[in-house]
Amino acid sequence: MEAIFEYLKSRELITTLFVLFISFILCFVLRRFFAKSVNVINPDDKNSSRRKMLINMIEHVLLYFVFIVTILVVLQVNGINVTSLIASLGIVSAIVGLALQDWLKDIIMGINIVVDHFFDVTDIVEYNGIEGEVISFNVKTTKLRSVVDDSIITICNRNISQITVVSPIVNINVSFDYSVNQDEAMKLMKEICSSALQLQDVSGADYLGVQEYADSAVIHRMSVRCVSQNAKYNVRRKINALIRTKFDESGLSIPFNQLDVHIK
User: CA 227 to CA 153: how far, in whole Å?
Assistant: First the structure.
């Protein structure tokens, strides 16, 4: 008990409280500064989320640095040999590092997202066969909104190498019966491309040629460029309807798989 009272009256306690006070003020100033830095970013800027993430990373690194330095100074003030303590914690640090390796991988990949510009908010990406819109990302996770049912998918950044950014180009196959003359099929395909250019959200449409000779049809392919990744799903539906209209106007039928049965 006497030792406690002695410590309460000692210079070490006063110095410790002073160090903690300075640390608190410094952290408060840093948080206010970075909060204002985030607020001045234009939300309409395509790179706004990337800048916010970068500011967030710098803020956390500085706060962690202040925290660690504060702990070391407090220990040193209270008579603990910090140098020896750090040396003795080498094995413990290795064990902790192994335990936190997935967490560290997430942070490293989060930094790579910012530096290498993997993707940005509003980009459409594919992950494990699911296509979704990037709605947010930070140093540890990336969140997607499924384009199918609006469900939210959270991905650890260490798995980010499995993500593919979806192209705004839609490749559409159109099947023609083998009885249709090739010149007639090519003419109709070019008419479909020309009509597709008149659709909203379409910036380009090209006929690529014969894609495949299938069992029941000759398959031609067209390539349509959309103004954005989000628009491609609606554009595909409109072009499918356009193809059916053009086939009906030309008196052609869309072929389907057929099975011939011969009875002896």
Answer: 25
